[in-house]
């Protein structure tokens, strides 16, 4: 990993991408700095989902709930003019950790399609819980008036500061995932994905490790949510709808599930495509010519080419971008 | 007679209308190789899953090393020294041979809430794993993917994973399943070397292997024990000849 002589194409690309992220704000381009910041925050959420889904085989269709809980951990205190970032952080981590512990303890008693459904059901419960709280805007959402302040380091009011805080969190999360998956803990998680029955037969109590992994993943995603609230200055229950959870899964698969850098590749490609497809000629054509779509949310249009793309990735590019780079790298290396 | 290492009494399991095991009682003495034979569908694999704890019995009791383990799940029984191998190879195909075995070692080296240190260079795991691989003659293949092994090698890996848990009793479910003549001979050699060191409950179809290895034999037919005895007693038993050996044309 840190032995540069053994790097393959994907390692170089991931490194280049990280260096690009690290240097980009120096260009002074605010529009693209903002797009990259969103990418970075999403990549944190996707990396956290990749930990349970890619490495652990726990296919959650409710992961966006953690983004929402993390976001409201910033938004609700800010509503009362409490901008203490440490408090926001603690709320996000504890809130997501508790939610993950309770829902995970129940969900992990099921497998396969039942696990998918039950995680989705829990996230929908969180969604409707926030919709029903009128005080915090209900389904209209909540404007976050100021960003977190991290005494004595200062605040993240400046967009470039927020950008670099997000970037550092992303790098830390990727490094944490890297350590986890190569540790004994990670061995149990991956073993349980590959062959749970055998794991139990050789003496592993897989349940408690899976639950721990689920909690770690939820807390990581809470960080992404807290950053997201700071970044967008507006939060709403829509952030935790199951469609959002589906997008996270999409990004995991697109990048290459169960790979270290897959979340980076998947999120990057997804958001770039979203950005360009939503401004493409196709988009304009559809919005202007198909009357019944005029009232729909913008994401409806570019979801169509996206659906086709996902089908192609699943059918022809197994292992996503990471898998593609591995094959391409070994063919040409 | 000393307390048997494993004693199961009146074990029963049914699937819908099928009674897979019916009041099965077996004692396995410390140090012996106890074979269980019987035609396909006799309930041998079901018995193993009941003994290993993957499936709870409808009724009956399992005692292991003087302790009642009837309600203990599989991973807890593994901790007490009970290991099984699978008739249908059950390994981690996408992992290396070494990782397959080191995961088994790991389960018996304290808890796995260790989040930081790499496992692939952890001598506490790698050394015992290599020792288990050496016992089955797979040390050279340690770095290969498990999926790249031949069928015979995968069967040996099955045994190595069970051995790596340092069990007091091995439950082996048809270790020679699907093997050619030469591979079977290799497996007999592996098991012979373990004789005396490990107690084994051996399920096997290959009668040559059973007669070469077993100290005692239990015959299971339609879920019921029809005979238990030494190799010679079983060979001479008329019921067994009719019910089972006859069927095989032996
Ligand atoms: N999980 C199961 N569900 C339903 N029936 C089963 C199951 N496992 C085994 N059986 C049935 O129980 C009987 C005994 O099977 P098994 O224990 O596999 O026999 P053996 O290993 O001796 O060939 C068979 O009739 C089989 O079809
Ligand atoms: Mg069987």
Topology:
The complex is a heterodimer of chains A (333) and B (250).
Chain A: H1 9-23, H2 30-55, H3 64-79, H4 85-107, H5 112-132, E1 142-143, E2 149-150, E3 154-155, H6 159-182, H7 184-201, H8 206-232, E4 234-235, H9 242-255, H10 262-277, H11 281-289, H12 299-316, H13 320-332
Antiparallel strand pairs in A: 1-4, 2-3
Chain B: E1 6-15, E2 18-28, E3 33-37, H1 44-52, E4 59-64, E5 67-68, H2 74-79, E6 82-84, H3 97-106, H4 123-135, H5 151-163, E7 169-173, H6 181-194, E8 199-203, H7 207-213, E9 216-221, E10 224-230, H8 231-236, H9 238-245
Parallel strand pairs in B: 3-8, 3-9, 6-7, 7-8
Antiparallel strand pairs in B: 1-2, 1-4, 4-5, 9-10
Helix pairs in contact in B: 3-4, 3-5, 4-5, 5-6
The structure holds adenosine-5'-diphosphate and magnesium ion.
Adenosine-5'-diphosphate is lined by residues 15, 18, 20, 38, 40-46 of chain B.
Structure overview:
- The complex is a heterodimer of chains A (333) and B (250).
- Chain A has a single domain (4-332), classed as ABC transporter involved in vitamin B12 uptake, BtuC (Orthogonal Bundle).
- Helices cover 72% and strands 2% of the residues of chain A.
- Chain A has helices at residues 9-23, 30-55, 64-79, 85-107, 112-132, 159-182, 184-201, 206-232, 242-255, 262-277, 281-289, 299-316, 320-332; strands at 142-143, 149-150, 154-155, 234-235.
- Chain A has a two-stranded antiparallel sheet with strand order 1-4. Chain A has a two-stranded antiparallel sheet with strand order 2-3.
- In chain A, a hairpin with a 3-residue loop joins strand 2 (149-150) and strand 3 (154-155).
- In chain A, helix 6 (159-182) crosses helix 7 (184-201).
- Chain A starts with 8 loop residues before the first helix and ends with a helix.
- Chain B folds into two domains: 1-88 and 167-250, P-loop containing nucleotide triphosphate hydrolases (Rossmann fold, 3-Layer(aba) Sandwich), CATH 3.40.50.300; 89-164, no CATH class.
- Helices cover 34% and strands 24% of the residues of chain B.
- Chain B is built from nine helices and ten strands.
- Chain B starts with 5 loop residues before the first strand and ends in a 5-residue tail after the last helix.
- The chains are: A mainly alpha (333), B alpha/beta (250).
- Chains A and B meet through helix 6, helix 7 and helix 8 of A and helix 2 and helix 3 of B.
- Adenosine-5'-diphosphate binds at residues 15, 18, 20, 38, 40-46 of chain B.
- Adenosine-5'-diphosphate binds next to strand 2 and helix 1 of chain B.
